[in-house]
Amino acid sequence: MFLKRPNGLSLVVLTVTFIGCPQQAMTERQITDVANVIHEKALTIDTHVDIPDTNYATKVFDPGIDNPKLKCDLVKMDKGGVDGVFLAAYVKQKERNEQGYKYAYESAITQLAVIRRLPEKMYPDRCELAKSPTDVERIAKSGKKVIMIAIENGFAIGKDVSKIEEFYNLGVRYITLSHNGHNDICDSCKPSVKLGDRESEHDGLSEFGREVVTEMNRLGVITDVSHISEKSLYDVVKVSRAPVIASHSGCRALLDHPRNLNDKQLKALAKNGGVIQIVALSGFLKPDSPQRDKSISDVEDQLDNGKIGISQFLAKMREIDAKYPPSADVGVFVDQIEHAVKVAGIDHVGIGSDFDGGGGIPGFNDHSEALNVTIELVRRGYSEDDIIKIWGGNFLRVWTEVEKVAQELQRGSENG
Ligand SMILES: [Zn+2]
Fold first, then answer.
1. What is the pLDDT of residues 285-298, one digit of tens each?
2. Ligand 1 center to residue 227 CA distance, Å?
3. What pTM was estimated for this model as a whole?
Protein backbone atom coordinates (compact mmCIF):
# COMPACT_ATOMS: atom_id res chain seq x y z
CA MET A 1 0.00 0.00 0.00
CA PHE A 2 1.30 3.42 -0.90
CA LEU A 3 0.18 5.76 1.82
CA LYS A 4 1.41 9.16 2.75
CA ARG A 5 0.80 8.69 6.45
CA PRO A 6 -0.54 5.95 8.68
CA ASN A 7 -4.21 5.79 9.62
CA GLY A 8 -5.16 8.78 11.70
CA LEU A 9 -7.86 9.10 14.31
CA SER A 10 -10.20 10.96 11.98
CA LEU A 11 -10.18 8.03 9.61
CA VAL A 12 -11.07 5.59 12.38
CA VAL A 13 -14.00 7.77 13.34
CA LEU A 14 -15.20 8.10 9.74
CA THR A 15 -14.75 4.41 9.04
CA VAL A 16 -16.87 3.55 12.05
CA THR A 17 -19.48 6.07 10.99
CA PHE A 18 -19.71 4.99 7.37
CA ILE A 19 -18.93 1.29 7.31
CA GLY A 20 -21.81 -0.43 5.58
CA CYS A 21 -23.32 2.92 4.78
CA PRO A 22 -24.23 3.06 1.08
CA GLN A 23 -22.96 6.22 -0.62
CA GLN A 24 -26.48 7.11 -1.68
CA ALA A 25 -27.33 7.52 1.98
CA MET A 26 -24.50 9.96 2.56
CA THR A 27 -25.14 13.66 2.45
CA GLU A 28 -22.93 15.89 0.26
CA ARG A 29 -21.24 17.07 3.44
CA GLN A 30 -20.50 13.48 4.49
CA ILE A 31 -19.17 12.62 1.03
CA THR A 32 -16.81 15.61 1.20
CA ASP A 33 -15.67 14.64 4.71
CA VAL A 34 -14.89 11.07 3.66
CA ALA A 35 -13.18 12.32 0.49
CA ASN A 36 -11.04 14.71 2.52
CA VAL A 37 -9.78 11.93 4.77
CA ILE A 38 -9.02 9.58 1.88
CA HIS A 39 -7.40 12.33 -0.16
CA GLU A 40 -5.17 13.29 2.76
CA LYS A 41 -4.17 9.68 3.31
CA ALA A 42 -3.48 8.82 -0.35
CA LEU A 43 -0.18 9.46 -2.02
CA THR A 44 -1.48 11.50 -4.94
CA ILE A 45 0.50 11.55 -8.16
CA ASP A 46 -0.17 13.20 -11.50
CA THR A 47 1.94 11.51 -14.18
CA HIS A 48 1.82 14.19 -16.85
CA VAL A 49 2.35 17.93 -16.57
CA ASP A 50 4.14 20.11 -19.12
CA ILE A 51 6.38 23.09 -18.53
CA PRO A 52 5.63 26.33 -20.42
CA ASP A 53 9.12 27.15 -21.68
CA THR A 54 12.74 27.51 -20.64
CA ASN A 55 11.88 30.45 -18.38
CA TYR A 56 10.12 27.94 -16.12
CA ALA A 57 11.47 27.96 -12.56
CA THR A 58 12.65 31.56 -12.80
CA LYS A 59 10.87 34.73 -11.69
CA VAL A 60 9.31 34.89 -15.18
CA PHE A 61 7.49 31.57 -14.72
CA ASP A 62 7.53 31.06 -10.98
CA PRO A 63 6.02 27.74 -9.84
CA GLY A 64 6.46 28.77 -6.20
CA ILE A 65 3.53 31.19 -6.20
CA ASP A 66 -0.16 30.74 -7.03
CA ASN A 67 0.71 31.53 -10.62
CA PRO A 68 -2.27 32.45 -12.85
CA LYS A 69 -0.29 31.28 -15.89
CA LEU A 70 0.22 27.77 -14.48
CA LYS A 71 -2.25 24.98 -13.71
CA CYS A 72 0.43 23.18 -11.75
CA ASP A 73 2.52 25.07 -9.22
CA LEU A 74 3.62 24.33 -5.67
CA VAL A 75 0.84 26.45 -4.15
CA LYS A 76 -1.94 24.79 -6.17
CA MET A 77 -0.50 21.34 -5.44
CA ASP A 78 -0.55 22.16 -1.75
CA LYS A 79 -4.08 23.53 -1.86
CA GLY A 80 -5.38 20.50 -3.78
CA GLY A 81 -3.41 17.91 -1.80
CA VAL A 82 -1.34 16.73 -4.78
CA ASP A 83 1.89 15.14 -3.59
CA GLY A 84 3.85 14.55 -6.76
CA VAL A 85 4.04 15.37 -10.46
CA PHE A 86 5.96 14.21 -13.45
CA LEU A 87 7.17 17.27 -15.35
CA ALA A 88 7.73 16.49 -19.00
CA ALA A 89 10.47 17.74 -21.29
CA TYR A 90 8.38 17.86 -24.46
CA VAL A 91 10.35 17.44 -27.65
CA LYS A 92 8.61 18.47 -30.82
CA GLN A 93 8.82 16.01 -33.71
CA LYS A 94 10.87 17.50 -36.54
CA GLU A 95 12.53 16.16 -39.63
CA ARG A 96 14.82 13.24 -38.97
CA ASN A 97 18.03 14.68 -40.28
CA GLU A 98 21.22 15.78 -38.56
CA GLN A 99 19.74 19.17 -37.71
CA GLY A 100 16.51 17.65 -36.37
CA TYR A 101 18.31 15.12 -34.16
CA LYS A 102 20.58 17.86 -32.82
CA TYR A 103 17.57 20.03 -32.00
CA ALA A 104 15.78 17.13 -30.27
CA TYR A 105 18.70 16.17 -28.07
CA GLU A 106 19.56 19.75 -27.12
CA SER A 107 15.93 20.62 -26.46
CA ALA A 108 15.65 17.69 -24.04
CA ILE A 109 18.94 18.51 -22.29
CA THR A 110 17.96 22.17 -21.88
CA GLN A 111 14.52 21.34 -20.47
CA LEU A 112 15.88 18.74 -18.07
CA ALA A 113 18.11 21.45 -16.60
CA VAL A 114 15.10 23.79 -16.43
CA ILE A 115 12.99 21.19 -14.60
CA ARG A 116 15.80 20.32 -12.18
CA ARG A 117 16.23 24.00 -11.36
CA LEU A 118 12.86 23.87 -9.53
CA PRO A 119 13.73 21.29 -6.82
CA GLU A 120 17.50 21.80 -6.78
CA LYS A 121 17.99 25.57 -6.97
CA MET A 122 14.75 27.50 -6.71
CA TYR A 123 12.73 25.74 -3.98
CA PRO A 124 14.83 22.93 -2.44
CA ASP A 125 13.02 23.53 0.84
CA ARG A 126 9.59 22.93 -0.73
CA CYS A 127 10.13 20.16 -3.26
CA GLU A 128 12.60 17.45 -4.14
CA LEU A 129 13.50 15.36 -7.16
CA ALA A 130 12.48 11.68 -6.87
CA LYS A 131 14.32 9.02 -8.83
CA SER A 132 12.62 5.96 -7.33
CA PRO A 133 9.32 4.95 -5.72
CA THR A 134 11.18 4.85 -2.39
CA ASP A 135 12.20 8.48 -2.94
CA VAL A 136 8.56 9.36 -3.68
CA GLU A 137 7.31 7.93 -0.38
CA ARG A 138 10.13 9.46 1.65
CA ILE A 139 9.73 12.94 0.12
CA ALA A 140 5.92 12.92 0.38
CA LYS A 141 6.13 11.90 4.04
CA SER A 142 8.54 14.78 4.69
CA GLY A 143 5.84 17.19 3.53
CA LYS A 144 7.75 18.35 0.45
CA LYS A 145 6.29 18.06 -3.04
CA VAL A 146 7.67 15.30 -5.22
CA ILE A 147 9.07 16.27 -8.63
CA MET A 148 9.74 13.53 -11.19
CA ILE A 149 11.02 13.89 -14.73
CA ALA A 150 9.83 12.52 -18.06
CA ILE A 151 10.73 13.03 -21.69
CA GLU A 152 7.78 13.32 -24.05
CA ASN A 153 8.96 11.96 -27.40
CA GLY A 154 11.69 9.38 -27.86
CA PHE A 155 12.88 11.52 -30.79
CA ALA A 156 15.13 13.05 -28.10
CA ILE A 157 17.45 10.03 -28.34
CA GLY A 158 17.53 10.13 -32.15
CA LYS A 159 19.04 6.86 -33.30
CA ASP A 160 21.38 6.49 -30.34
CA VAL A 161 20.30 3.96 -27.68
CA SER A 162 23.12 5.09 -25.35
CA LYS A 163 21.33 8.44 -24.91
CA ILE A 164 18.73 6.66 -22.74
CA GLU A 165 21.32 6.06 -20.04
CA GLU A 166 22.49 9.66 -20.31
CA PHE A 167 18.92 10.84 -19.74
CA TYR A 168 18.42 8.29 -16.96
CA ASN A 169 21.46 9.72 -15.20
CA LEU A 170 19.84 13.16 -15.44
CA GLY A 171 16.77 11.85 -13.59
CA VAL A 172 14.44 10.84 -16.43
CA ARG A 173 12.19 7.98 -15.32
CA TYR A 174 9.76 7.63 -18.20
CA ILE A 175 9.98 8.30 -21.90
CA THR A 176 6.93 8.68 -24.15
CA LEU A 177 8.05 6.77 -27.23
CA SER A 178 6.60 9.22 -29.78
CA HIS A 179 4.58 12.41 -30.12
CA ASN A 180 2.69 13.74 -33.16
CA GLY A 181 4.50 12.16 -36.11
CA HIS A 182 6.40 8.91 -36.58
CA ASN A 183 9.98 8.70 -35.36
CA ASP A 184 12.72 6.06 -35.57
CA ILE A 185 11.25 4.16 -32.62
CA CYS A 186 7.65 3.63 -33.69
CA ASP A 187 4.56 4.83 -35.50
CA SER A 188 2.61 7.62 -33.85
CA CYS A 189 -1.19 7.55 -33.47
CA LYS A 190 -1.09 10.90 -35.25
CA PRO A 191 1.07 10.80 -38.40
CA SER A 192 2.49 14.21 -39.30
CA VAL A 193 1.21 15.42 -42.67
CA LYS A 194 3.74 18.24 -42.58
CA LEU A 195 6.63 15.81 -42.18
CA GLY A 196 5.27 13.66 -45.00
CA ASP A 197 4.30 10.71 -42.80
CA ARG A 198 2.41 7.85 -44.37
CA GLU A 199 -0.29 6.15 -42.28
CA SER A 200 2.34 3.67 -41.08
CA GLU A 201 6.10 3.67 -41.41
CA HIS A 202 7.24 0.75 -39.23
CA ASP A 203 3.99 -1.18 -38.88
CA GLY A 204 4.24 -0.47 -35.14
CA LEU A 205 7.51 -0.65 -33.25
CA SER A 206 10.69 -0.60 -35.39
CA GLU A 207 13.73 -2.84 -34.90
CA PHE A 208 15.43 0.15 -33.30
CA GLY A 209 12.33 0.65 -31.14
CA ARG A 210 12.73 -2.91 -29.84
CA GLU A 211 16.29 -2.08 -28.80
CA VAL A 212 15.01 1.09 -27.13
CA VAL A 213 12.36 -0.72 -25.06
CA THR A 214 14.90 -3.40 -24.08
CA GLU A 215 17.38 -0.75 -22.97
CA MET A 216 14.68 1.10 -21.03
CA ASN A 217 13.85 -2.21 -19.28
CA ARG A 218 17.52 -2.71 -18.42
CA LEU A 219 17.91 0.77 -16.97
CA GLY A 220 14.55 1.01 -15.21
CA VAL A 221 13.07 3.75 -17.40
CA ILE A 222 9.28 3.32 -17.69
CA THR A 223 7.96 2.98 -21.24
CA ASP A 224 5.10 5.38 -21.98
CA VAL A 225 2.67 4.34 -24.72
CA SER A 226 0.57 7.53 -24.87
CA HIS A 227 0.78 9.06 -28.38
CA ILE A 228 1.95 5.85 -30.09
CA SER A 229 -0.15 3.97 -32.68
CA GLU A 230 -2.41 1.06 -31.75
CA LYS A 231 -0.08 -1.50 -33.37
CA SER A 232 2.93 0.13 -31.67
CA LEU A 233 1.26 -0.45 -28.29
CA TYR A 234 0.69 -4.15 -28.99
CA ASP A 235 4.33 -4.49 -30.08
CA VAL A 236 5.60 -2.67 -26.98
CA VAL A 237 3.71 -4.88 -24.52
CA LYS A 238 5.05 -7.93 -26.37
CA VAL A 239 8.66 -6.74 -26.21
CA SER A 240 8.70 -5.12 -22.76
CA ARG A 241 9.80 -7.29 -19.85
CA ALA A 242 8.29 -4.74 -17.46
CA PRO A 243 4.82 -3.18 -17.18
CA VAL A 244 4.28 0.03 -19.16
CA ILE A 245 2.17 3.14 -18.70
CA ALA A 246 -0.03 5.35 -20.84
CA SER A 247 0.91 8.55 -18.98
CA HIS A 248 -1.98 10.69 -20.30
CA SER A 249 -4.68 9.06 -22.44
CA GLY A 250 -8.44 8.58 -22.50
CA CYS A 251 -10.81 5.76 -23.47
CA ARG A 252 -11.75 5.44 -27.12
CA ALA A 253 -15.02 3.67 -26.30
CA LEU A 254 -16.24 6.96 -24.83
CA LEU A 255 -14.69 9.28 -27.42
CA ASP A 256 -13.34 8.06 -30.73
CA HIS A 257 -10.07 10.01 -30.84
CA PRO A 258 -6.77 8.52 -32.04
CA ARG A 259 -5.07 9.65 -28.81
CA ASN A 260 -7.42 7.43 -26.79
CA LEU A 261 -7.04 3.71 -26.12
CA ASN A 262 -9.73 1.28 -27.25
CA ASP A 263 -10.90 -1.60 -25.05
CA LYS A 264 -8.52 -4.07 -26.73
CA GLN A 265 -5.59 -1.77 -25.92
CA LEU A 266 -6.81 -1.33 -22.34
CA LYS A 267 -6.93 -5.12 -21.93
CA ALA A 268 -3.44 -5.49 -23.44
CA LEU A 269 -2.17 -2.88 -20.98
CA ALA A 270 -3.82 -4.69 -18.05
CA LYS A 271 -2.39 -8.05 -19.15
CA ASN A 272 1.06 -6.44 -19.23
CA GLY A 273 0.51 -5.26 -15.64
CA GLY A 274 0.57 -1.64 -16.77
CA VAL A 275 -1.63 1.35 -16.10
CA ILE A 276 -3.62 3.96 -18.05
CA GLN A 277 -3.43 7.41 -16.51
CA ILE A 278 -6.63 9.18 -17.53
CA VAL A 279 -6.04 12.57 -19.13
CA ALA A 280 -8.00 15.70 -18.13
CA LEU A 281 -7.95 17.26 -21.59
CA SER A 282 -11.47 18.04 -22.76
CA GLY A 283 -10.89 17.21 -26.44
CA PHE A 284 -10.05 13.61 -25.51
CA LEU A 285 -13.00 13.17 -23.14
CA LYS A 286 -16.16 14.55 -24.76
CA PRO A 287 -16.89 16.16 -28.12
CA ASP A 288 -16.35 19.93 -27.86
CA SER A 289 -18.14 22.64 -29.82
CA PRO A 290 -16.92 23.00 -33.43
CA GLN A 291 -15.77 26.55 -32.58
CA ARG A 292 -13.61 25.28 -29.73
CA ASP A 293 -12.21 22.44 -31.84
CA LYS A 294 -11.36 24.83 -34.67
CA SER A 295 -9.74 27.41 -32.37
CA ILE A 296 -7.64 24.75 -30.64
CA SER A 297 -6.55 23.12 -33.88
CA ASP A 298 -5.50 26.57 -35.15
CA VAL A 299 -3.27 27.28 -32.14
CA GLU A 300 -1.94 23.71 -32.22
CA ASP A 301 -0.93 24.29 -35.84
CA GLN A 302 0.81 27.51 -34.84
CA LEU A 303 2.64 25.59 -32.12
CA ASP A 304 3.54 22.77 -34.52
CA ASN A 305 4.81 25.22 -37.11
CA GLY A 306 6.96 26.97 -34.54
CA LYS A 307 5.02 30.25 -34.88
CA ILE A 308 4.30 30.29 -31.15
CA GLY A 309 5.95 28.69 -28.12
CA ILE A 310 4.26 26.68 -25.38
CA SER A 311 3.76 29.71 -23.11
CA GLN A 312 1.97 31.61 -25.90
CA PHE A 313 0.02 28.46 -26.65
CA LEU A 314 -1.10 28.32 -23.01
CA ALA A 315 -2.13 31.99 -23.10
CA LYS A 316 -4.18 31.38 -26.24
CA MET A 317 -5.71 28.28 -24.61
CA ARG A 318 -6.85 30.42 -21.68
CA GLU A 319 -8.57 32.79 -24.13
CA ILE A 320 -10.25 29.84 -25.86
CA ASP A 321 -11.38 28.38 -22.51
CA ALA A 322 -13.04 31.69 -21.67
CA LYS A 323 -14.71 32.06 -25.07
CA TYR A 324 -15.66 28.43 -25.79
CA PRO A 325 -15.60 26.47 -22.51
CA PRO A 326 -14.72 22.76 -22.68
CA SER A 327 -17.70 20.40 -22.64
CA ALA A 328 -16.08 17.81 -20.38
CA ASP A 329 -16.11 18.33 -16.63
CA VAL A 330 -14.95 16.39 -13.59
CA GLY A 331 -17.95 14.04 -13.92
CA VAL A 332 -16.99 13.20 -17.51
CA PHE A 333 -13.38 12.73 -16.36
CA VAL A 334 -14.53 10.21 -13.74
CA ASP A 335 -16.74 8.51 -16.37
CA GLN A 336 -13.48 7.85 -18.22
CA ILE A 337 -11.86 6.47 -15.06
CA GLU A 338 -14.90 4.23 -14.53
CA HIS A 339 -14.77 2.88 -18.07
CA ALA A 340 -11.05 2.11 -17.78
CA VAL A 341 -11.68 0.40 -14.41
CA LYS A 342 -14.49 -1.66 -15.93
CA VAL A 343 -12.34 -2.85 -18.85
CA ALA A 344 -8.79 -2.97 -17.44
CA GLY A 345 -9.53 -3.46 -13.74
CA ILE A 346 -9.07 -1.28 -10.66
CA ASP A 347 -5.32 -2.07 -10.53
CA HIS A 348 -4.64 -0.53 -13.94
CA VAL A 349 -6.00 3.02 -13.83
CA GLY A 350 -4.55 6.33 -12.64
CA ILE A 351 -4.44 10.06 -13.37
CA GLY A 352 -2.29 12.12 -15.78
CA SER A 353 -3.81 15.59 -16.21
CA ASP A 354 -1.74 17.11 -19.05
CA PHE A 355 -1.96 20.43 -17.17
CA ASP A 356 0.05 23.20 -18.80
CA GLY A 357 -0.08 21.21 -22.01
CA GLY A 358 -3.78 21.64 -22.85
CA GLY A 359 -5.31 19.75 -19.89
CA GLY A 360 -7.87 21.26 -17.51
CA ILE A 361 -11.66 20.96 -17.33
CA PRO A 362 -14.33 22.60 -15.18
CA GLY A 363 -14.05 21.07 -11.71
CA PHE A 364 -10.49 19.84 -12.33
CA ASN A 365 -8.98 22.81 -14.07
CA ASP A 366 -5.78 22.91 -12.04
CA HIS A 367 -4.18 21.09 -9.12
CA SER A 368 -5.96 23.20 -6.49
CA GLU A 369 -9.16 21.35 -7.52
CA ALA A 370 -7.80 17.80 -7.24
CA LEU A 371 -10.03 16.98 -4.26
CA ASN A 372 -13.06 17.22 -6.59
CA VAL A 373 -11.91 14.05 -8.35
CA THR A 374 -11.83 12.18 -5.03
CA ILE A 375 -15.23 13.58 -4.06
CA GLU A 376 -16.70 12.30 -7.34
CA LEU A 377 -15.10 8.88 -6.80
CA VAL A 378 -16.50 8.66 -3.26
CA ARG A 379 -19.91 9.73 -4.53
CA ARG A 380 -19.84 6.85 -7.01
CA GLY A 381 -19.01 4.35 -4.31
CA TYR A 382 -15.28 3.82 -4.80
CA SER A 383 -13.63 2.51 -1.66
CA GLU A 384 -10.67 4.06 0.09
CA ASP A 385 -8.40 1.30 -1.28
CA ASP A 386 -9.64 1.90 -4.83
CA ILE A 387 -9.08 5.64 -4.62
CA ILE A 388 -5.59 5.22 -3.18
CA LYS A 389 -4.77 2.94 -6.11
CA ILE A 390 -6.14 5.39 -8.69
CA TRP A 391 -4.41 8.41 -7.18
CA GLY A 392 -0.93 6.91 -7.36
CA GLY A 393 -0.83 3.43 -5.83
CA ASN A 394 -1.15 1.70 -9.19
CA PHE A 395 1.46 3.87 -10.84
CA LEU A 396 3.92 3.34 -7.96
CA ARG A 397 3.36 -0.42 -8.16
CA VAL A 398 4.25 -0.32 -11.87
CA TRP A 399 7.35 1.78 -11.21
CA THR A 400 8.45 -0.62 -8.44
CA GLU A 401 8.07 -3.54 -10.86
CA VAL A 402 10.02 -1.67 -13.56
CA GLU A 403 12.86 -1.19 -11.05
CA LYS A 404 12.74 -4.85 -10.07
CA VAL A 405 12.96 -6.00 -13.68
CA ALA A 406 15.92 -3.66 -14.23
CA GLN A 407 17.74 -5.08 -11.23
CA GLU A 408 17.13 -8.62 -12.45
CA LEU A 409 18.32 -7.80 -15.97
CA GLN A 410 21.44 -6.05 -14.66
CA ARG A 411 22.21 -8.93 -12.29
CA GLY A 412 21.63 -11.39 -15.14
CA SER A 413 24.08 -9.62 -17.44
CA GLU A 414 26.71 -9.47 -14.66
CA ASN A 415 26.37 -13.21 -14.05
CA GLY A 416 26.14 -14.17 -17.70
ZN1 LIG B 1 1.08 14.63 -24.80
1. 998 899 999 999 99
2. 7
3. 0.93
